[in-house]
Write a structure and sequence with these properties.
The complex is a heterotrimer of chains A (about 250), B (about 200) and C (about 80).
Chain A: H1 3-6, E1 13-24, E2 27-33, E3 45-51, E4 57-63, E5 73-78, H2 86-92, E6 98-105, E7 119-124, H3 128-140, E8 147-153, H4 162-169, E9 174-180, E10 191-192, H5 197-203, E11 212-217, H6 219-231, E12 239-243
Parallel strand pairs in A: 7-8, 7-11, 8-9, 9-10, 11-12
Antiparallel strand pairs in A: 1-2, 1-6, 2-5, 3-4, 3-6
Chain B: E1 23-24, E2 45-50, E3 56-59, H1 60-64, E4 69-76, E5 81-92, H2 93-97, E6 106-111, E7 116-120, E8 130-135, E9 138-139, E10 149-151, E11 164-170
Parallel strand pairs in B: 1-5, 2-11
Antiparallel strand pairs in B: 2-3, 4-5, 5-8, 6-7, 6-11, 8-9, 8-10
Chain C: E1 4-5, H1 10-17, E2 25-28, E3 34-36, E4 41-43, E5 49-52, E6 59-66, E7 69-73, E8 77-81
Classes of the chains: A alpha/beta (about 250), B mainly beta (about 200), C mainly beta (about 80).
Bound molecules: flavin-adenine dinucleotide (FAD) and zinc ion (ZN).
Amino acid sequence: MERAALLRRLTWQTGTVIATTVETPRVKTIALAVPDWPGHRAGQHVDVRLTAPDGYQTQRSYSIASAPGDDYLSLTVERLDDGEVSPYLVDELRGGDELEFRGPVGGHFVWDEEFGGPLFLVGGGSGLVPLRSMLRHHRAIGSQVPVRVLCSARSLESLIYREELMKRAADDLIDVSITLTREAPSSWRGYRGRIDPALLSTAGWAAAEEPLTYVCGPTAFVETAAAGLVALGYDAGRIRTERFGGTGV
Amino acid sequence: MAVTRGFHGRRAADPSRVPPGQYVTRDFPVLSAGPTPYPQLDTWEFTIRGAVDKPVSWSWTDFQALPREQFTVDIHCVTKWTKLDVTWSGVSLDTLLAAVPTEAPYAVAFSDGGYTTNIPLADLRRGKAWIVDEYDGRPLDPEHGGPARLLVPHLYFWKSAKWIRGLDLRTADQPGFWEMFGYHNYGDPWKEQRYYGD
Amino acid sequence: MEPLDGNALAGVMHDLFARDMTTMGYKCTSCGHTGVMAEMVVYMSGPGTVARCRGCETILMMLTERRGMYCIDMSGMAQPVLPLA
Ligand SMILES: Cc1cc2nc3c(=O)[nH]c(=O)nc-3n(C[C@H](O)[C@H](O)[C@H](O)COP(=O)(O)OP(=O)(O)OC[C@H]3O[C@@H](n4cnc5c(N)ncnc54)[C@H](O)[C@@H]3O)c2cc1C
Ligand SMILES: [Zn+2]
């Protein structure tokens, strides 16, 4: 991209909703068609802005769930019952609607192929969204970097991208671990309970392998995971974090 | 400006009770500019100092022994929410200021965590302001400013300093934390005094 | 409300500085901690935005907005290193 093109204030753009997909009872993925989308890096986000008829405006950040090469720009939104923006996006927005946003933004919580690995992706709740973009990008470019993924969700029903994760886990390069913190089916063979250093060490890499780690999710989840990784001897300089606000998963 | 189909934002209500530009919320949003402090009650003190003959301090036990008031007011936050009929209990600033004769026209409230805000002293007298330690019949929780916060309901809520530790009385006005960064010096919600110059 | 981090400032800072600022390096004037803006502890629930040092909680940056006009103060930040555009 040209320097002149970059040194420009961000402008608000409009995308058209192509489809919405139910991920869990509280989470939807919104696919947007965006004219002249400049492309993005896996892990970036956009700021979405809503405008009421009386001119009132409000905005929130949402990570990009799609890979840079995907046809549409996708966002995955979890509905917070007392929220202002997420209930609108999950319950009200539908195919054909227009949505205003600016981005892509963020140059820190991103994974480019040249960063290498091995990769450890740790996501709590909707914190899986930017990690899914990284996983899709990894596949799209045929990356040979080995990846371990650790997902934390309240229950199996509330785990987003469940089928996609299961499919990716069949790939030799990709290892997916799931921990359920509130309820698990009686036949559940994955992990249970909140993440802690023991689980991070089982699901992740040995510190000596110098993994590149991305941790994303509710603020309290990210703090626990990051502190656990440092306690395990991970190089803090190779742990990148992104906090969505809110407490645990 | 493109209107988002089906989005109405948070609705404004009865204009006789709700200042312009505000919407009514039922929950109690937490506003913070820093980590929540957890002071020990056995070392907690409320101090009035500055342009006074002699500073006066109350320990937590002293403070608890003062005459209390319970009252219900509306609160208006500059971030546009208004919460109606909130019940508090605490000590009127008239009670506290009676112990500290002063001619000073201004006060700067100071708090644990370093937060400050300035208020004309007249706005803290005559039953218009309190130091509260109970919200809705329960001890004020730390997220909302406990153990004790200032409450000046006729001004925007940032003036109601959380985690308050005292008042610095002054002969000249001095902007506080948000006031220094472009927020209105006085903050009357009915005049929409949100920013400097409003 | 739990604090966010500097990633949440990416949009507004990109708008103001016409480039990504989350990779901007800083050194805290108070404790000497070094890092990038993405790692700052960010409080966005007050009337304005406050960014603090992850090492010591000193205020590094304040950002307030008034009808589309921004006021930004970076006094807690020594040696900001601008990322290349
Ligand atoms: C960089 C970044 C990327 C993000 N990406 C995503 C994403 O991909 N998908 C997604 O669903 N969300 C994402 N978020 C969170 C999102 O921006 C909103 O904060 C969230 O949707 C809530 O907005 P709301 O208007 O519905 O709730 P609000 O009206 O803002 O808040 C309602 C209540 O929920 C609490 N709350 C606010 N945020 C959260 C939270 N994240 N978790 C739990 N409680 C909260 C508030 O304290 C308040 O009590 C991201 C945030 C950031 C900073
Ligand atoms: Zn510091």
